[in-house]
Amino acid sequence: MSIGSSGFALDDEGHDLRLIQDYLGHRDSRYTVHYTHTAGRRFEGLWDAEGMASKKTVTLDNLMALGPERLAAILVELANGDAKVKRRLRLELAARTGGDTIAAETGKRLTALRSSRSFINWQKRRDFVKDLDLQRAIIVDRVAQTRPDLALDLMWRFMDLAEPVLNRVDDSNGSVGGVFRAACEDLGTIAAKAKPNPLNLADRVLAAVQANDYGVFDGLVTVMLSALGKAGAVHLKERLRTVLADRAGKPGERNYHALVVRTALQALADGQSDVDAYIALVPPEERRMPHQGAEIGRRLLAAGRAAEAIAALERARPKRSATKAARDDDIHLIGLAVDDAWEATYIEALEATGRQDKAQQLRWAAFEERLSADRLRAYLKRLPDFDDVEAEERAMRHALGFRSFAAALDFFTGWPDQARAAQLVLARASEIDGNLYYLLDPAARLIEGKHPLAATLLRRAMIEDTLEGAKSTRYKHAARHLLECQSLLAGIQDFGTCETHEAFLIRLRARHGRKTGFWSQVGEVTER
């Protein structure tokens, strides 16, 4: 529950304003009112005395009260004007007559989707994804329950849609690809029920693996292992090795298809717990790459071969530099791991070989280098009582002076440590990058209760970045931030060397007065 929603809930329950103020950590009760004046009493008209939903609210009970005849008439009327509603009703009617009928209806829809050529932009994508996922769900939930053989055929046909569909859809957010990846998982479950001929299934899997240009068949071999059985796995392995040998026979060609085939063979090796077969499939030159070393090391550890894991990881040790470390600060902020897998596996291997002190040194070094909260927590957890308190204080001092303000703020926000996050903001306000809204906005919400001035500085940075860059798509957010700054005034006793809110507004008006789009948004937000 967020801070704001907590205030609303406590107010609804009749708690005293002072109690809510203490709970939210506000220094001034006038600020607490900001989180209680829009409590649930404003919505009393939507609920009756028994706490039941209004009769006008669309709920299952209210719709059932209309009666089957009235509901049927409404659905027919909707279906006549909406093709999507009509298709859904046809599917529901087909489901009543059994798996064969609904399979036939689903097959017709898959044929229509395959033959369509119109481009689907981001505005139409959401409805298209719903339709696509509906077909997947019907195959899994309706057809597969009674006719898994038909369901398996339909799901292969569904997966065959991936290339033509992804060629004509704006899938910038990955939602369409996500439906196909979910369907790939479903294939394994359905195949296990359908029990097809294992050799034929192996041939079908091979064809899919080789046609995996969009990555929708990633993981197919793994999910099919159960259905393939021993005979199918052996047949698939032989065919994959033949294909890989053919690819290897073309000098100078390092292509994606060879990698895909090798990955499929490695999935088979994993399924058979054959670590040596997995390693043999990794080209010698790639075994020195950190991510490959981590994969090999992880499997050796699982097999109880810790010493070999250490050796493999040592050969793949990452090469660090100051330039790379600075670049990694930005990468970590957007959630991408940089050599984390290698490091985590190496630490696990050190522990497994009895080198706990070395593992601790590596954890602390990882924290010092990039403010890894996970490594610091693991480090502190293994220290004796009281030593951990001293070490945590030392770590916090290091974070306050870290080379990257953004990385430090991200660390304190995630730890979490409100007081030090605010201390960092006030001490290094000139380093705030207002473009990092995905970091600054949650940080401001975290600290605003007890540290309103620091939260204000974060929001001002976002406002100024938006206006300086004339980022019109963010104007409504900047307007909201300005209103939030206004709401925090009651809790700020002294602005110190920082601009007052009035001075900040005057400067904004003087520099960006002509950005009418922003100021109109400010007016709209203020009137709400």
Question: Overview of this structure, please?
Answer:
There is one protein chain. With 528 residues, this protein is mostly helical. It contains 29 helices and no strands. It has helices at residues 3-12, 17-24, 29-34, 60-65, 68-81, 83-95, 99-115, 122-146, 148-160, 162-166, 175-194, 198-210, 220-248, 256-271, 275-280, 290-302, 306-315, 322-333, 340-352, 356-370, 373-381, 387-400, 405-414, 418-427, 437-447, 452-468, 475-487, 501-512, 516-527. Helix 5 (68-81) packs across helix 6, helix 11 (175-194) packs across helix 13 and helix 13 packs across helix 14 (256-271). The longest helix is centred in the middle third of the chain and has 29 residues, at 220-248. The radius of gyration is 30 Å and the shape is flat. It starts with a helix and ends with a helix. The model is unreliable at 1-5 and 37-51 (pLDDT under 50).
For this entry, give a set of tags.
single chain, 528 residues, mainly alpha, 29 helices
Percent in helix: over 70%
Taken from the alpha-carbon principal axes, the silhouette is flat
Strand percentage, roughly?
under 5%
Order of helices and strands: HHHHHHHHHHHHHHHHHHHHHHHHHHHHH
What composes the largest sheet?
none
Alpha-carbon distance between the two ends: 23 Å
Topology (elements, then pairings):
Layout: H1 3-12, H2 17-24, H3 29-34, H4 60-65, H5 68-81, H6 83-95, H7 99-115, H8 122-146, H9 148-160, H10 162-166, H11 175-194, H12 198-210, H13 220-248, H14 256-271, H15 275-280, H16 290-302, H17 306-315, H18 322-333, H19 340-352, H20 356-370, H21 373-381, H22 387-400, H23 405-414, H24 418-427, H25 437-447, H26 452-468, H27 475-487, H28 501-512, H29 516-527
Helix pairs in contact: 1-2, 5-6, 6-7, 7-8, 7-9, 8-9, 8-11, 9-11, 11-13, 12-13, 13-14, 16-17, 16-19, 17-19, 19-20, 20-21, 23-24, 23-25, 24-26, 25-26, 26-27, 27-29
